[in-house]
Amino acid sequence: MLSTETIYFVLFTTGLAVGFGHCIGMCGPIVVSLSLSLKGRSVLVPHLLYNGGRITTYGLLGGVMGATGSFTRVVASIASLQKGVMIFTGILIVVMGLAMAGWVPLGAIFGDYYNPQGVLSRGFRKLSEARSTGTYYPLGMLLGLLPCGPVYTALLAAARAGMETQSTLEGLLIGVGLMLSFGLGTVVALLLIAKLADLGWLKRRDVIYKISSVLMVIVGVYFVIRAFRY
Amino acid sequence: MQANVKVRLFAAVFTLIMLPVCPTSSSGKSEPPGVECDVHAGPCRAHISGTKVSLDIEPKPVKAMHDLTFTVTFEGEKPVAAPYIDLGMPGMNMGRNRVILKPAGELIYRGEGVIVRCPSGRRTWKAKVTVPDVGSVEFVFDVIY
Description:
The complex is a heterodimer.
Chain A: H1 4-37, H2 44-68, H3 71-101, H4 106-110, H5 119-129, H6 136-143, H7 149-163, H8 168-196, H9 200-204, H10 206-229
Chain B: H1 3-18, E1 35-36, E2 44-48, E3 51-58, E4 67-75, E5 84-88, E6 98-100, E7 102-103, E8 108-114, E9 124-131, E10 135-142
Parallel strand pairs in B: 1-10
Antiparallel strand pairs in B: 2-3, 3-4, 4-8, 5-6, 5-9, 7-8, 9-10
């Protein structure tokens, strides 16, 4: 059995390793979409906030896992929420793709023409335009709920570590710490992707920009289909 | 920036966007084929350094995201140390998911674990049974989501 210190290190390196493999596949399209939607603004702070939000969610989930010591029960209770987040993410990527290329005005999609102050219209417009840098933190928190195999594995480790503690509080703290370690490991790869998608020449080329928009729409639709199959 | 560099960079971004559409191996390493078996029908059997070993997973059918009991049984000689199982997906790094096995009889070892679910929809998993200082064998099987 590994010591607690060793598990922290193992989860950090696991996060680092899966970050360059699995996470790029799952979160890559979201990160690329967010970078492109920034349209020339610095990507560093928004993406640090996005990753901060994502890791916060991991930490909270880890705390629950560590405190309860039950992986399957907690995961079963958030399954519907995760499905909803997947659908939301898919729609968000589609909307960002459409809005970015300027093919379809957001108002036409979400009824701004009739109700410009509608909650849905305003919400999607705010998220898709992401004018406020602060938006990226809650967005990261929400997207941290996306179902992901390696995240499940890390949560399983948090639940197991929690089972071996003497008190609920100790389990909670270890669970939070382990998931924060894992989350920090995944940040490196996602920040690199964010920077790659921010290359200046990409944004100056309209054709490439529009091709990226088409790909975002395809990926968004795929996310929604996958959510319904999940 | 040179034109060919631009093309390469665009290809990189294109690949990143399309990755979830085409989930494939993330490790890049070629792995030895495991012993394929139908874990829902009964125990999977193979050899580790000449010793017969079987892996059984309960309850059946074997479902992801459920508490599972893993039983490894040896035939003949007792292993020098307790075996353990590493769960993962072929060609995909899912993080360290180790099932610690404890003696449950003369030649029987048992432990609890969970096979997590991959949102990509892939259902093929592998259980690598390792006997320290002796060897290991991989069982490859499909699980139910």
